[in-house]
Amino acid sequence: MTQGSLLYTDFLAACRAVCGEQFVITDTAEKQIFESEWRGRQKGDALAVVLPASTREVADIVRLCRDANVAIVPQGGNTGLVLGSIPTAPQTAIILSTRRLNRVRQLDSDGNTLIAEAGCTLAAIQQAAAEVNRLFPLSLASEGSCTIGGNLSTNAGGTAVLRYGNTRDLCLGLEVVTANGEILTQLHGLRKDNTGYDLKQWFIGAEGTLGIITAAVLKLYPQPRSRCTALLAVQSAEDALHILRLAGDQFGPALTTFELISRVCTDLVLQHIPGTRAVFAQPYPYQILLEISDFHPSAHTAAVWEDFQQNLIQANLLADGVLATSVAQADAFWKLRESISEAQAKAGRNLKHDIAVPVSRIPEFIKQTEHLLSSRCPGAQVVCFGHMGDGNLHFNVSTQAVDRQLTPDALNDEGVSRLIHDQVHVFGGSFSAEHGIGAMKRDDMLRYKSETALSLMRAVKQALDPAGMMNPGKIL
């Protein structure tokens, strides 16, 4: 379909009849914000950007696309990291933005559930829950702009996975528009429903390739009565692993966050992010951001923390440590953690690797992989941080300091990523922990997934989207 064709004109007119004139965008300049990947790495070229305001409108648009043989790229906040929410081929697909699907439809504080439309930002859902003294625990650096539809479509993780699980674990039901334009409604919010296949799981983590999530029932939790946020300094990843085990034994489910931060990360943040400052008088190889959230009074939590800290000192695991004594200080600790990606971007181009390895093997993985990388690509700098408590590391690499004249055989960027992902595979891990596959990691799927797994995925795709119109070029 081309812009000059009568079919194109008729198709757009039909879309405008569904959504309204101003919500079908074809102007090149107006489309750019939707077509551009937020980090500027790639730009798509959509036939149009369509913004429906209801599930019924989404279904109508999907049927129009089906009849006109136009592909659909669903898009929420467009904050993804794997090129999953922009078109891969020019002028063959519309971007279907869920930004106008932004209502909290229902909030049940007794049943601890909330029904939100797909275009609700994560921050808006957190705030709605907080207004009735409830907690929606999913927390990401992009929570002010990412949407719950995107979070579900990528099965986002975040900083509280250790206690509450991924987005998949926080969802009780979905409303989905299928590739045929039919509406699947499962918004009952039941904790137990053993009536056949759990259909919502087909669409969570599918990145819009099987259908379009339009609403979800989400789990809420009571607001914790107390929180302890601490920044610990350690000499090695091995010491961090020992502390993680002791923290799990000491705090049980109250252990909410356990983030590993390498010295390189801290140095980048202090250098590039205004308003940040070093917590410790001297630098250490690693820092741990640890948070406990509990339902006991603050005095009890503080006493338990003091006991834990003394155990670490006696075990010679703690080089230094600071417990936040105010909300402002806790926020400052979190700013050091949440600013790493921004600091990396300011420092220059870097290769991002969102990986998972068994928790018990994290120190060994870091040591071996850093050694391999230094020998195969001298000058490459590893920026390692992430959710150590659940095995998810962001093992990012900057190759700007690699001198190609001195070491012409040094690995190129593709070779660096291949080395890291091969190592992940050797350690029994995953090359994508929480960012998804999108268009960026399709080749990795072929390299690391078994043929049996890929065949089953293709069978599901064929069954639910036989025409291949839902987010083509992503995952498979």
UniProtKB/TrEMBL annotation:
It holds the Pfam family FAD_binding_4. InterPro entries: FAD-bd_oxidored_4_C (IPR004113), FAD-bd_PCMH (IPR016166), FAD-bd_PCMH-like_sf (IPR036318), FAD-bd_PCMH_sub1 (IPR016167), FAD-bd_PCMH_sub2 (IPR016169), FAD-linked_Oxase-like_C (IPR016164), FAD-oxidored/transferase_4 (IPR051264), Oxid_FAD_bind_N (IPR006094). SUPFAM superfamilies: FAD-binding/transporter-associated domain-like, FAD-linked oxidases, C-terminal domain. Residues 42-223 form the FAD-binding PCMH-type domain. Keywords: FAD, Flavoprotein. The keyword Transcription regulation does not apply. Belongs to the FAD-binding oxidoreductase/transferase type 4 family. PANTHER family: BLL6224 PROTEIN (PTHR43716:SF2), D-2-HYDROXYGLUTARATE DEHYDROGENASE, MITOCHONDRIAL (PTHR43716). This is D-2-hydroxyacid dehydrogenase.
